[in-house]
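Design a sequence for this backbone.
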């Protein structure tokens, strides 16, 4: 049977982890996969996570199954974090999922059950795994214009025009904040204009919020979710706790859906739970209990907000640091979009050939599109990084 198979290519993002690890050069730099790093280049467990884990170890008395929807306390906390008070509680439900990817996968099956012929419109460009993940589940995907990779600005007019021409009932996948890969988000006014078209065309928002708290604040970053929740009858929201709680490998996320009324909400809830049972049966528990513990303890929650603000601040500082270094090393080139972007990512704005040369000649690793994870920059490596980039321009 397996003779029919050929080796699959390495994943464009995750493949870089191994490539970088196997590179013996001490000066190598990893700007690939989206994990936070400290000024020392580490991805430590957050202090609040350690504290919550200790409490769980001391008090947890069972590892029995918790059910397809996961931990009710986690779900309620994630719903509050996502929607604030923007939504009628009877119309919304949240389930725990194995990471943001797991929640996207469940959402894909839900869309296929509810509206199998709908197209999901994704930003051009979008996260490298959106199309394989959602397309692999069976959804039809098409791009809408989002970002001008030459001018490094949003293509807002083209986006609005394109959305205004979509068939009613199609879904639009939006990145709530820290757009991956560009790091360029619409302003609140621009989001309002996008929401106007969504409402007018009766499109279904499908929001991926993987970086809440990494752009401005927990509340500001949820602006479009809450704005839409007040205006549309139905929507889907996928959350990830990988980044803002640093729980990458524990696989913690949630899927929320808004329905027209309580009866519809309850029907969707039953469908979602039956979908979960057919994919992974029940979600992993540990990370979700950690999140629930933090979000339901005043002190831990306050400490988490501080750690989150530190991560956000470091990402901002590193953007400025690299832009300043590039001004010096490559004065004829404009990299100012680096500081206009938010969150972990932005494009450097170089060719695939230059990306390859940076890897081969300098041990600098980034995704082929020239997306960089700014958390990989430190005060120690920024000069070498800017010199290497300048040498390939
Ligand atoms: C990324 O875009 O680097 C992260 O979201 C990690 C991943 O799974 O691709």
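Sequence:
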């Amino acid at each position: 049977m397996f003779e029919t198979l050929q080796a699959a290519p390495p994943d464009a993002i995750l493949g870089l982890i191994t490539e970088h690890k196997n590179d013996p050069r001490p000066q190598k730099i990893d700007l690939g996969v989206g994990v936070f790093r400290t000024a020392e280049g580490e991805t430590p467990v957050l202090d609040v996570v350690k504290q919550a884990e200790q409490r769980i170890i001391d008090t947890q008395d069972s590892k029995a199954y918790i059910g397809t929807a996961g931990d009710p306390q986690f779900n309620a906390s994630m719903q509050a974090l996502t929607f604030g008070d923007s939504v009628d509680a009877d119309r919304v439900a949240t389930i725990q999922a194995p990471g943001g990817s797991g929640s996207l996968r469940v959402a894909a099956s839900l869309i296929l059950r509810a509206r199998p012929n709908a197209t999901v419109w994704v930003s051009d460009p979008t996260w490298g795994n959106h199309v394989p993940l959602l397309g692999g589940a069976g959804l039809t995907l098409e791009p809408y214009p989002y970002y001008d990779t030459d001018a490094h600005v949003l293509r807002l007019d083209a986006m609005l025009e394109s959305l205004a021409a979509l068939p009613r009932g199609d879904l639009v996948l939006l990145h709530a904040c820290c757009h991956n890969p560009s790091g360029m988000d619409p302003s609140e006014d621009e989001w309002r204009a996008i929401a106007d078209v969504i409402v007018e065309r009766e499109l279904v928002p499908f929001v991926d919020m993987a970086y809440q708290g990494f752009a401005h604040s927990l509340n500001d970053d949820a602006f479009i979710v809450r704005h839409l929740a007040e205006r549309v009858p139905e929507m889907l929201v996928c959350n990830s706790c990988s980044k803002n709680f640093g729980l990458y490998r524990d696989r913690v996320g949630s899927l929320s859906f808004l329905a027209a009324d309580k009866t519809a909400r309850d029907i969707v809830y039953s469908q979602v739970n039956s979908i979960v049972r057919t994919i992974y049966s029940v979600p992993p528990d540990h990370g979700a209990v950690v999140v629930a513990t933090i979000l339901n303890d005043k002190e831990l929650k306050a400490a988490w907000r501080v750690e989150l603000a530190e991560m956000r601040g470091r990402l901002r500082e590193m953007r400025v640091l690299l832009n300043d270094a590039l001004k010096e090393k490559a004065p004829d080139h404009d990299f100012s979009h680096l500081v206009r972007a938010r969150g972990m990512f932005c494009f450097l704005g170089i060719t695939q050939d230059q990306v390859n040369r940076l890897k081969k000649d300098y041990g600098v690793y980034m995704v082929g599109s020239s997306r960089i994870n700014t958390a990989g920059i430190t005060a120690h490596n920024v000069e070498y990084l800017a010199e290497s980039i300048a040498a390939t321009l």
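The radius of gyration is 21 Å.
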